[in-house]
């Protein structure tokens, strides 16, 4: 028997961050989170289960992968095989359309695409909710990439009730993200390690959990009322709170470098000139500027004058998981 399926999933950037797990094996987060799926960056993945294979193989951008990335991927295939009750090996071929130097997390789009293609090739017909639960087991943020536009990952407290759902798939707000790459190197501390260290050692962790619940309610209200300023204000503040957990951990650490802080300062200064721009940062030094389309050209001009060497990309809201066959 041979069975193939291909799927595409886009990456997402959290406006209300996920930073810590209450169950590490099942990837159940301590807080609910909310993100915007982006059109610009995505992963295409083809999975082929074949009786003739004697092992799983994983090709990323046409290169055979070995080591931790391959192991994580094969562990995920095992989950799919368990659900489908098969024991056939598979070949995975993924192409990442996240520019290699973009410094953006690709695990969200990668595991969302793999959940889609892998489950279908294994003969499963999963609902989007079940796909989100499955993608979550690969990387938490992947749960949100099953959906387009604004997507909320409801934390839940077990495997069955921790999944993402769409808040608004066809985004009505004028919102774009300018990704500013200050450093394209791999992150030194993975998000998986960083978040648990913050959870275990920051004295402010419980405050973060409490604040995140309030931020989420306010963020959903901002989306419903099309209030860009409220959305941006909340997103920037939530990101800074997440990063303050890392600074206050023991030992403290940060994903920021000098350029991150300089760009953050530039974004805050733009607002003083009546240009509505807000910043969000994840497990790396790069900055994503949340802006309205009418301002993106001006913002990029100002940014390029101050930092001629940074790489900049504009992303718009994107759609959820799609099958390519
Ligand atoms: C800062 O989803 O990469 O981007 O579940 O351990 O794979 P694991 O972590 P991951 O963490 C993402 C952290 C973040 C915030 C977010 O996307 O919500």
Task: Please supply descriptive tags for the structure shown above.
325 residues, alpha+beta, Ribosomal Protein S5, domain 2, Alpha-Beta Plaits, 8-stranded mixed β-sheet, 8 helices, globular, binds ligand DP6
How many distinct helices?
A: 8
Number of strands: 14
- Please name the CATH topology of the largest domain: Ribosomal Protein S5, domain 2
What order do the helices and strands follow? Answer: EEEEEEHEHHEEEHHHHEEHEE
- Helix vs. strand class: alpha+beta
Question: What's the arrangement of secondary structure elements?
Answer:
Layout: E1 2-16, E2 21-23, E3 28-29, E4 33-50, E5 57-60, E6 63-64, H1 68-84, E7 90-96, H2 107-121, H3 128-138, E8 150-154, E9 163-168, E10 176-181, H4 191-201, H5 205-224, H6 228-247, H7 258-272, E11 277-281, E12 287-291, H8 293-306, E13 311-315, E14 322-323
Parallel strand pairs: 5-7
Antiparallel strand pairs: 1-4, 1-14, 2-3, 4-7, 4-8, 5-6, 8-9, 10-12, 10-13, 11-12
Describe this structure in words.
- Keywords: ATP-binding, Lipid biosynthesis, Lipid metabolism, Lyase, Nucleotide-binding.
- It holds the Pfam family MVD-like_N.
- It is an enzyme of class 4 (lyase).
- InterPro entries: GHMP_kinase_C_sf, Mev_decarb, Mev_diP_decarb, MVD-like_N, Mvd1_C, Ribosomal_Su5_D2-typ_SF, Ribsml_uS5_D2-typ_fold_subgr.
- Its EC number is 4.1.1.33.
- The protein is α+β, with helices and mostly antiparallel strands.
- It folds into 2 domains: 168 residues, Ribosomal Protein S5, domain 2; 140 residues, Alpha-Beta Plaits (2-Layer Sandwich).
- Helix content is 38%, strand content 26%.
- It contains 8 helices and 14 strands.
- The strands form 3 sheets. Strands 1, 4, 5, 6, 7, 8, 9 and 14 form an 8-stranded mixed sheet that branches. A 4-stranded antiparallel sheet has the order 11-12-10-13. Strands 2-3 form a two-stranded antiparallel ribbon.
- Helix 2 packs across helix 3.
- The longest helix has 20 residues.
- The radius of gyration is 19 Å and the shape is globular.
- The model has no long low-confidence stretch (mean pLDDT 96).
- It binds ligand DP6.
- Ligand DP6 binds next to helix 4.
């Amino acid at each position: 028997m041979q069975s193939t399926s291909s799927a595409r999933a886009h990456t997402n950037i959290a406006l209300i961050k996920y930073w810590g797990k209450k169950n590490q094996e099942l990837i159940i987060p301590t807080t609910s989170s909310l993100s915007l799926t982006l059109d610009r960056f995505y992963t295409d993945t083809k999975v082929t289960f074949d009786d003739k294979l004697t092992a799983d193989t994983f090709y990323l951008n046409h290169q055979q992968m070995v080591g931790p990335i391959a192991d994580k991927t094969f562990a995920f295939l095992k989950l799919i095989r368990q659900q489908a009750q098969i024991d056939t090996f598979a070949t995975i071929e993924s192409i990442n359309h996240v520019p290699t130097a973009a410094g953006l997390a690709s695990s969200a789009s990668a595991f969302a695409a793999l959940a889609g293609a892998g489950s279908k090739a294994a003969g499963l017909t999963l609902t989007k909710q079940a796909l989100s639960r499955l993608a979550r087991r690969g990387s938490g943020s992947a749960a949100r990439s099953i959906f387009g536009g604004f997507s909320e990952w409801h934390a839940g407290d077990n495997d069955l009730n921790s999944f993402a759902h769409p808040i608004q798939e066809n985004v009505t707000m004028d919102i774009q993200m300018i990704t500013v790459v200050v450093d394209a190197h791999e992150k030194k501390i993975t998000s998986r390690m960083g978040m648990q260290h913050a959870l275990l050692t920051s004295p402010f962790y419980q405050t973060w959990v409490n604040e995140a619940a309030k931020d989420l309610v306010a963020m959903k209200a901002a989306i419903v009322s099309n209030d860009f300023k409220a959305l941006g204000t909340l997103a920037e503040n939530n990101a800074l709170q997440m990063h303050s957990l890392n600074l206050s951990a023991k030992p403290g650490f940060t994903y920021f470098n000098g350029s991150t802080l300089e760009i953050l300062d530039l974004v805050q200064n733009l607002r003083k000139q009546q240009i509505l721009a807000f910043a969000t940062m994840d497990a790396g030094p790069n900055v994503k500027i949340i802006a309205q389309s009418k301002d993106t050209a001006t913002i990029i001009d100002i940014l390029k004058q101050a930092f001629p060497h940074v790489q900049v990309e504009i992303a718009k809201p994107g759609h959820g998981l799609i099958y390519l066959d």
